[in-house]
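Running log. JK asked me to keep both predictions on one page so they can be read side by side. First protein, sequence followed by its tokens:
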Amino acid sequence: MITADLTGKTALVTGGASGIGLAAVELFARCGASVAMNHLTEDPRAAAEIARLTGAGFKIIAAPGDVASAKDVPGMVGRAVDKLGRLDILINNAGTSGTTAPIEFGDLDKMTEEFWSTILSTNLLGPFRCAHAAAPALKAARGAIVNTASVAGLGAVGSSVAYGASKAALINLTRNLARALAPDVRVNAVAPGLVDSPWTKAWPEAKKRDHVAKTLIHRMCTPADIAEAMLFLSDTSPSPLAGEGRVGGRARSAPRLAQHTVSTRFSPALSKLRQHSPPFLPRKGGGAKHKSVHALARKWGARRADLQFPRVRFRGGHERIG
């Protein structure tokens, strides 16, 4: 399990009452952060989860509000920052599929104006609204934003045409927010695939098995897996993900490189590998360090597929594992 010392840090997690958001709230709190859990006002799960976590000694506050509402967001973010005293990390996790079951791509009649409006207002405009409202506090703290995208935004089949389009747009938004807020705030995104979440729990077991068989790691990701990736990307200490990269053996300032999408598939071997590998590996050509890292990975049981994730790509032909 990935961990960090977030004592004295604060975080706002949108869509925090269940699934990936709840896992992020709990993980960040376990690491010592004070966390504001955003949730829909009428969601009964929020009060129960906040009571459970505060009862366990964690610092959790409620931040009710709908990210799909332009009127709700400024007040929700402002109150959360006031209660927390500062804001170091914003997790833009709130999102919706707008449907309880996947919609066939050919069924365009179901892509109504109302459906599109719901999807885009939550999945795309919601993260922008929250980032906009939180920007002054995040700049003051030299903080970080992590958006929850999806492999559906990278060309995989999602729950609908509209959902995939919204996540592709969110990935683009992430890149441009990184440019807009650099160098004070780092902006990144996670792009989960199949996740064992409330949305997939109702799927027939045969359907789950079929989807799992097509994944590289032959299991569903858990919300905790994604939360760990969010924690990694939320590190507010100086980081190569903030735009300082070592390219071609020399350091250079690279604010254009601040955002990259990370697909969250982990293995115990990669966790161990991360502690021993050189920070940057050549994408092509091999070399002694490149080969030694892959030898260690094989020794600790990582498959070649595991080595592809998580990956942060840098222009200039280099990449960092982890």
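And the second, directly underneath as requested:
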Amino acid sequence: MFHKFFEFAGEKNKRDIQSEEEFLKYCSGKSFLNGLYRIHNTEDIPKWNGIVGKAFPEFSGKIRTFGYDWKGNQFALDTDRNVVLLFEPGSGEVSDLNEDFVAFHNEIMPGNREECLDESFFEEWYEANDRNQLLHDKCIEEEIFDNKEDPVFPLDYIPIAYDSCGNIILLNARKGEAYGNIFFANHELYDEKGFYVITQIACSFNEFIQKLSPFDRQEN
């Protein structure tokens, strides 16, 4: 039933998985395509149902999470309509993918990998990080859910690093002219909305990496 997904993911699976439950059990805790897409551990699904429900209250108790991407975007099944939803904590947006669990894995994801997973941007990030695969329980957006509670930067920015003083390096995740640009968030200064003052420091993740240089404490 999921042969197309496993072919897309490069997974050599010879089992004929016939249900959503069997798929989740078989793929529990697995990462695919160097960490581009992951399946939640089955025992962690109730925890993530709660986390996503808290961040998106209108969906609390109405979803069943099952997977997430490298940025921390969550995929869940709308339990009332049996369609897959995409939750983007970076922008606060929810997308209705209008397909069930099987069609999402076999058709939507392989055919729309850029829209679903932002694959080209992942490849840029992956190469800049010496092709080190993200661990299953790590993503570049770990603090987004906490930021929704008491936001200190706009929800369409993703924290990717800190400096030695606790200032945050942010990536702009909202589609548009500034998409993928890198910003510096000064944690000691606030704007009129109560956010940290942010300043653009690079036009891409690669440019940001290339600008980095060793810090010599003796010279500073």
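Observation for JK regarding the second prediction: Helices lie at 3-9, 20-27, 45-55, 101-111, 113-117, 119-128, 144-149, 205-211.
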